[in-house]
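Worked example 2:
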Amino acid sequence: MLAPPFEIMLVAALTGAACALPGVFLFLRRMALVGDAISHAILFGIVGAFLIVRDLRSPWLIIGAAGTGVLTAVAVDVLRQTGRVKEDAALGLMFTALFSLGVVGIARGVGNIHLDLDAVLLGELAFAPFDRMIWGEWDLGPRGAWVMGGLLLLNLVLILALYKEFTLSTFDPDLAAIFGFRPAALHYLLMGMTALTVVAAFDVAGVVLVVALLVVPPATAALLTDRLPSMLGLSVLLGLAMALGGYGLAYALDLSIAGSMATVGGVLFALAFLGAPAHGLIAQARQAARQRERLAQQMLIIHLLSHEGTEAEREENCVETLPQHLRWAPAFAEQVIQRAERAGWVMREGDLLRVTETGRRVAEEVLGAHGGTISSP
């Protein structure tokens, strides 16, 4: 048998990976809040089923939760299709109503049974090793590991089997319908996958961590790659990183495991938001700076050409007076000139700047794109 810390990490890792897969398609469809709505709304199904059967081990709790999750997705679609309620408002209406009913059910009908709000919101991964899967005389390990491992396998098989259909219906539902892929059926299949995954993760992870695992890995992966296969793989890896890194943080500092995992996810997203190679804040700032520099170089050669061969050339194209005429700071003007020289667009002739043939072609392309021309002296 594995030691409890390893069992906790195993359950957490499987939960993170299982939630990340449907989370990618929810994120790409701009439906990340559907996962949030389902994760809150299933409380009503759990409490309702418990109040009927009075057995925390009953499979009817899972059935009730999954049914409520699918019902939430269907109800949101119905409200949205009426045209009178926007999708975000429909999500807010459904999940607050059902979650509130679930909270009321806990407060009024559960009594002394161990079904409390702390467990609902934060879960308790630390107790996962104590809920064992027993077969005969064999102890097969934590029940949560088997359940989440099964959901991870199911999600993976469905996505691999219907990869083309999910991809096309996500990016172009109309074209998917033309090809006979039934986007509505695929949508509700995705909602069913999400509901089952959330229900399975709800017991060990709680609402807060389930939402984080559905949203944070795909959102972070989208900053790191533009390819769907890479995004799916990165999301799973990020879900694992949240689980393992969060448990390590909680173990080292004696913190809430679910809270630590969500915190690690936030840190990973912040790092990607700042440092992603193409979409990060730093990369975009550098790209904007390069664009400004290129624009300044284009302005420089157009200014030089507009005064080339005229009486004002010696004044307008002089290195010393150029910053004044272009209204640039001298240091910035010198930087632009040096970059244009390195690019082979301009060269110095004494105190004057001349446009090279390469620079002339660039200027013609720029002006041609805007309907302008350069007249020869």
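The chain has two domains: 4-279, 283-369. The chain has a mean pLDDT of 84.
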